[in-house]
Amino acid sequence: MALILSIFTNHFAGPLAAVRSGALQAETPPSPSPSLVTSDVAEPPSPEEQSQLEEPPSPLISALQVPLGYAGACGEDAHAAARKVWLEADVRYAHLMDDKFTIAILTYKRPDILNVTLTKLLSTPIPSLHEVVIVWCESPDPPPSYTSPLGVRVRYRYSSYDSLNARFAPDPLYETQAILSHDDDVWYEPSDLEFVFQTWRQLGRYRITGALPRCFTRNDKGSLSYHPCKKGQDWYSMVLTNLAFVHLSLMDYYSSGEQIPTLIRAHVDENFNCEDIAMNYIASMLTCTGPLHVQGKEHFKNQDPKKGISRGGGHVAKRHRCLNYFEEVIGFFPLVKQMGSIHRGMEWFN
Hints:
GT64_dom; single chain; disulfide bond; Glycosyl transferase family 64 domain-containing protein; ten-stranded mixed beta sheet; disordered N terminus; membrane; alpha/beta; 15 strands
């Protein structure tokens, strides 16, 4: 397999050994939601959204005076305690398999869509796939777990409350360090998935590594806005976690009782949105590097259902607000502009 590789910036070599850490805190269940799909759809800003972008930034953001893409505050002493908690988690999971991966699919009352995705993922051998876990946020009696004809275990994990944060819960039964965070309506072609996983192992172990890059802009008043990357744009700063590899230690910190992730999770539950943005912020805050976009020979597939979070009113406005609020919570702007993208295959060069 060959790589078409652009310039990479701030490659992170990985955490050092650290001491062990403690337990996680429980969360208050949010109100139920009609759907958990988080596939992202661009939509033009409404007049309300435009006015929100033009509002003056908070005093904290004004004081930061953070230029576009700046990550200079990363690594300073203010977040040393957060990194220590994360590094402790990394040590706790070091005994898990790192040559296999788990697919964790978040779903909510869409059995037909889920079954299409499962059928596709389980129809072709994927050498390093260890297990598929269905994060079940519905009734307390999910379908029974089973083993596919190709020998892949499919396990249903019941979540007692309907939360987008459930996708990042560090399941104590996970047996791999690599978790492919997955919505129920999208997938990489199975023939490409092994390539994406091995790329994560070599280049993206502590980076959000996946199929859907996203971008941001900051206006002259300091407010951030979220949008899909424009055609021809030479950088991105986020990768959506509806189809992305995430190291289990990052999920552990995201789900911990530390102040930053606790405030962020509460905002995600309050708005029922933005857990993907939140994980990108946290990963970049901890590692001082950005995500990694990886594309197979085939484009990822999306069933593109008519109902879902991204189809609801105010979806993009919520994501604008998340960018700004998460910056306030963290205390600096952690996202890093990445100029590299990996594609499977080889172009012909004369």
